[in-house]
Amino acid sequence: EIACGILFSIVVLQTIAYQILWDVQFLFRNLALVGGLALVVAESKKEARSIFAGVPSLGENKPKTYLMLGGRILLVFMFLTLVRFEFSVMQLFQLVIGGMLMCLVAIGFRTKLSSFMLVLWLTLFNIYMNAFWTIPAYKPMRDFLKYDFFQTMSVIGGLLMLVSLGPGGVSM
Q1: Is the pLDDT reported for residue 77 higher than 60?
Q2: pLDDT surpassing 80 at residue 130
Q3: Of 160, 151, 130, which Cα lies nearest the Cα of 43?
Q4: For the residues of 76-98, what is the DSSP string, one character each?
């Protein structure tokens, strides 16, 4: 939990230091990172122990449940950064399929399957769109693509946590 707090403060500090709080794409990517951090914190929460030994609990852990819900919703903000207002078959396919999977993750319906599909989709998209290794080292565009690549990898990690943990208590 302490490490997640430090990482959260770095995300906030990064937003302030780069002075691009009002850049919507940057803001949505940071919200997706915060969602991933919320999932990590939720995973670290332990079930409350009963004072009576051997008595089963209802399995209800309110902070963990709400952290999972918030993390799930914030994680899908990554897809809003991928929306481009171009009219092509690939862009339309991305909007329809990605949007549908994003909604399924947000509401918690078939979360493990839809998260896994988003992992596959984002991985392919990330390798195709943010191929920083194809740009010579002296060009500034390489740094921008590398930044986008690793931020997208962070969100993929959060989605893999959803594949592992499931949607949490507040889901369909």
Answers
A1: yes
A2: yes
A3: 160
A4: THHHHTS------HHHHHHHHHH
> Which tens digit of pLDDT belongs to each residue from 18-57?
777 777 778 888 888 888 888 888 877 765 454 555 444 4
Helix (H) or strand (E) holding 65: helix 62-75
Instruction: Compute the distance between CA of residue 35 and CA of residue 106 in angstroms, rounded to an integer.
Output: 11
| Cβ atoms of 65 and 46 closer than 8 Å | no
Q: Over the chain, what is the mean pLDDT?
A: 79
Contact 106, 72 (CB under 8 A): yes
Written as six digits, the tokens of 162 are: 């959803």
| Rg of the chain (C-alpha set) | 18
Neighbours of 160 (CB within 10 A): 16
Beta strands (DSSP E) in 4-143 are none
Can you tell me the distance from the alpha carbon of 48 to that of 57, in angstroms, rounded to the nearest whole number? 9
Number of Cβ within 10 Å of residue 165's Cβ equals: 18
Per-residue pLDDT of 105-122, as tens digits, reads 888 888 889 889 989 988
- Asked whether the CA dihedral 16, 21, 27, 29 is positive or negative, the reply is negative
Q: Which two tokens stand for residue 29?
A: 């990517």
